[in-house]
Amino acid sequence: MNTMRTKRWQPMRGLRWHAVALAAAAALAACGGSDGGGEPLDLTILHINDHHSTLDSKTITLKTLSSGGTTAADVTVEAAGFPRVTAAISELSAQSANVLKLHAGDALSGTLYYNRAGEVGEADAAMMNTVCFDAFTLGNHEFDKGDSVLKGFIDLLHKGSCKTPVISANVQFGANSALNASRAPGYVNPSTIVERGGQKIGIVGLTIAQKTKTSSSPDADTTFEDEATAAQREIDRLRSQGINKIVLMSHIGYEYDLQVVPKLSGVDVVVGADSHTLLGPSGLTTTGVGSPGGTYPTETKDKDGNPVCVVQAWEYAQVVGELKVSFDAQGKVTQCKGTPHVLIGDNFKIAGTDATESQKTALKASAAATGFLRITQPSASAAAVLKPFTDKVAVFNQTLSAVVPQELCSRRVPGGTGSVDYSRSSVACNAEGSVSLRGGDIQQLVAQAYVDIGNSLYGGADISLQSGGGVRIPLLGSVTAAQIIQVLPFGNKLYRLEITGAEAKSMVEDGLEATFGTGGTTGPYPYTGGLRFDVNAKAAKGSRASNLEVRNPTTGVWTAIDPAKTYKLFVLSFNALGGDGYATLAAVPAARRLDIGVLDADVFFSYIDKQTKDATTGLPILSRLPVEMYSTKSFAN
Question: How many helices (H) and strands (E) does the chain have?
Answer without folding.
Answer: 18, 32
